[in-house]
Amino acid sequence: MSTKEKAKKGKKVRRFFRNFFLCLLCLIVVVAAATAVVNTVVNKSEKNFVSDSVKPVEYTEQLVPELDEDGYYTFTTDRDFKVLQLTDVHIGSGYMSSKKDMMALNAVAAMVTAEKPDLVVVTGDIAYPVPFQSGTLNNKFGAGVFADLMEKLGVYWCAVYGNHDTEAYSYFNRKKISEKVYENREKYPHSLFQSGPEDVDGYGNYVIKVKNSIGQITQALFLIDSHSYTDGDYFGIQWKYDAIHENQVKWYEGVVASLTEENAGIEPKSLAFFHIAPNDMSTAFKEYKAAGYKDTENVKHKYGVIAESNDVICTSQHNFGLVDSFRQHGTKGVFFGHDHLNNISLDYKGVLLTYGYSIDYLAYPGIYKYGVQRGCTVITVKPDGSFDNRLENYYQDKYQSINAKEHVILDHDMKDDYASAGSLFSFQTANQDTDKNKDKE
User: Fold this and answer.
1) Distance between CA atoms of 383 and 389, rounded to whole angstroms?
2) What one-character DSSP code corresponds to residue 280?
3) Residue 381: enclosing H or E segment and its boundaries?
4) Element (H or E) spanning 66, and its range?
């Protein structure tokens, strides 16, 4: 073959690959554009469902918070203060998750409507922009639909971020979601979220106060960002979870000091809410398990089990002394989520560490078919600052779904307790011997 013929053949090869890659690029652009259009339609459909079908919660006497001089929202009451914890709602708002999104929205609306809480606290993972399950990278869709829902319900609410709310590959980071959604008071006046101090790590470090009619702080609710991933695990594929950082612990201690000064020198009782379980929960459960699922000197079991496979508690390897600080400064209860099947509540050296019931229909494969793990946590704060907490399963008569077709009814009596129903999970459960737990109850 002559040099001229070789050059001509080389041009044809280069032209082929150039055209191939141009066609591939065009195809990607077309698919991306089509997906964006479809996802926008899905998101609009979910928003229309909220605006057309959801009704405001009917309160006899709804408490209305006000901004105090220190910039924190404050409720004033001499009666019990009711907090409803929701966690891991996991709204994808993409073409792959629309049906499951509707189920999650139904569940939230039904439980909030029936419980009529003074405040809803969501401990992370409202949005779930994981593309191979939701079909979108737009995390603002899920966050916005949830905020629309809470605004239509007319219920005051606040949230902390989870690891999925702002993935490394999702469109918006914590700062943008905070500005565009959670702190958009003009659009969402019932949201009490605050980004928190700029010199403290994370977004969403703030406190909500409860006072009585004579101005005493009876309870402080601390909301803290537990971040996402750490140690180079940017996409979370190695399960290297972050923890609440040292400067956040210092921030908490500083706020406690300020509240104590405001409270005439009396340190107020408090509760804390964040997404990822503290390292101390793993320590407490290991001691409880080693004792044969019996109470020990340090650990007292209140309710629930660890039901993730192999007794998994997805926590950080880092511990910056958060729970030790809680113990020193009057925080008696800590509530979190992240592990969708765990719902245990353990008193560990005087601090109650509690997993909330999750909502998730989307993230765990097959979880939409099951319901013993789905519901809410009701926390009742007494006028003296003491509190009680209990789990409420979603599949009860008192929770009436807006859209009955999307209300999954299981093939068993959902009024059974978790221990007797636990065997219905299709995935492996930790099964720390459920009859041992029943014996305790």
Assistant:
1) 15
2) H
3) strand 375-381
4) strand 66-67
